[in-house]
Amino acid sequence: FRYQQNNDLKKIPKICKDGVFNIAMSAPGFVTKGGYVMLDALRIFRKLYPDIKIHLSIIYPKHKTNLGVNLYIKLFGLSDCVTFLGRQEDMAAYYEKADCFVCPSVYEAFGRVVVEAMYAKRPVILGSNVGASEIVKDGGNAFVYNADKKRAYNLAQKIKEVYDRYNDLD
Fold first, then answer.
1. How far, in Å, CA of 38 to CA of 78, rounded?
2. d(CA 3, CA 74)
3. N or C, which end of the chain is more exposed by having fewer CB within 10 Å?
4. What's the whole-number mean pLDDT along residues 71-77?
5. What is the DSSP secondary-structure string of the chain?
């Protein structure tokens, strides 16, 4: 995989069939939508589980001009497993390419993307601080990680839980 900066969904690996666990995320406001939390969780996940191939696609239209994000990805060696996408006209097609959807927002009143991903029948991982966490059951219809302390580590653990249970999820 290569660090992608385009809107081409064809660049995202096929769902789990090619041995890659695909994570999707929407982060138009990178910091408040938990972009750095997700990148840190990805870094931790790869360190803890080096044998699991993982790929992250992030909808972040301003990725080309955010030098901090680009530096972070290069500094922590994530360029081989991250794809940045611009605005998506067809969110259903975006969800269809994912094995799971993550909403690690730092501030999120509800998170409509959570419901959209659930509607697309994708497992959803969200932080305990996301408003939608109040209407889901952890381990039932979604996965909720503790966003109060060690949020990136907790998110990495939830990703592993979804990965381990992927074939048994309904």
1. 12
2. 9
3. C
4. 94
5. ---EESS-GGGSPPTTTTSEEEEEEE-SSTTTTTHHHHHHHHHHHHHH-TTSEEEEEEE-TTGGG-HHHHHHHHHTT-TTSEEEE---S-HHHHHHT-SEEEE--SS-SS-HHHHHHHHTT--EEEETTSGGGGGS-BTTTBEEE--SSSHHHHHHHHHHHHHHHGGG--
**Residues, the chain, total?**
170
For residue 142, which phi and psi values (nearest 5 degrees)? Answer: -165, 180
pLDDT tens sequence across 85-138: 999 999 999 998 899 999 999 887 787 899 899 999 999 999 999 988 888 889
Rounded Cα–Cα distance for residues 158 and 136 (Å):
15
- Asked if 129 and 111 touch (Cβ cutoff 8 Å), the reply is no
Q: What pLDDT score does 12 carry?
A: 53
Q: Are 113 and 122 in contact (CB under 8 A)?
A: no
The answer to whether residues 55 and 12 touch, using CB atoms and an 8 Å cutoff, is: yes
